[in-house]
């Protein structure tokens, strides 16, 4: 029997394993020296003036960044329905309301031309989502935000290492950028995330709120050679800290980010060459001179495809290949649909993208034979 090729697998080497073992032997398992080292490495990676705050998920990071930016009850935050629910649910954590704006049909990123029409007196921020690893039109989004006095928190869960106009996502003029290190992402810590900001006050607030609103890091208190047990709770914070076990993976995964991107880009080009004549729309490329992270390789079946999207996924599974769908738009889910009285046709581009989109396996542990398995399966179904 042919083994099943999953949709995604993490690429973990001996360096990561040895670092985790070192943490286990050190006796320091939770937030400690490895987390501090990972944050320092990431701040250098993100560029001069960056501060990096490690957290246990990108969801936590988005929540903290919004809270630190002053978003609260009754406010509105503009984002896209074509994303995972975490992007919008963090807005609700704060008693604010997400306001959805449809996507650009070519990129699946939020359409800047539709943002200004969604701004009201209650609007306080914009959360652009860099879909699949391709940058949003950040120049235009930042221009709109500055014009209207809005915060910008980038959901960069897919976007390591993506660039926009030659600048790394995370080094732009937004208020904060949040990365994800979930097991399927371009680099992983199993579960985890990172907040990048150049605003010292945002960084300070995120650090306080990620661990119960305590005024001092536990790492500093527990490594002090003098009595340092006193601390103050200055706010009702959260339990969002990253562990040293997770950071041990991240230290070495970050070093491989560029190598991983090069392989992902080559794999995407291989798919492009193999599928060019098939009834599908290929994923958009980054503009000349910029970098696509290629977290996802998302095709769109056309009207000429011999099967529906759902049947395509079933047939791929029968051929031993796992696929996925990114995403089921938020306005189709019961909570968002019912709370905001949304209809499928309210966001036609998101709906059409969802009905035709399929994410194919694309991860650095795939061999050439694995990728050929995917290519052959797709060709057999669509030719």
Explain what this protein looks like in three dimensions.
- It contains 13 helices and 12 strands.
- The strands form 3 sheets. The protein has a 7-stranded mixed β-sheet, sandwiched between helices. Strands 10-11-12 form a 3-stranded antiparallel β-sheet. A two-stranded antiparallel sheet has the order 6-7.
- With 383 residues, the protein is α/β, with parallel strands linked by helices.
- The model has no long low-confidence stretch (mean pLDDT 96).
- Helix 9 packs parallel to helix 13.
- It folds into 2 domains: 14-101 and 108-255, Aspartate Aminotransferase, domain 2, CATH 3.40.640.10; 258-382, Aspartate Aminotransferase, domain 1.
- The radius of gyration is 21 Å and the shape is globular.
- The longest helix has 19 residues, at 257-275.
Would you report the number of β strands?
12
Q: Please report which band the strand proportion falls in: under 5%, 5-15%, 15-25%, 25-35%, 35-45% or over 45%.
A: 5-15%
**How many domain modules?**
2
The fourth-level CATH homologous superfamily of the largest domain is: Type I PLP-dependent aspartate aminotransferase-like (Major domain)
What name is given to the CATH topology of the largest domain?
Answer: Aspartate Aminotransferase, domain 2
* CATH architecture classification of the largest domain: 3-Layer(aba) Sandwich
Number of helices: 13
The helix content, as a percent range, equals 25-40%
Distance between the termini: 25 Å
Largest sheet: 7 strands, mixed
Query: What structural category characterises the helix and strand content?
Result: alpha/beta
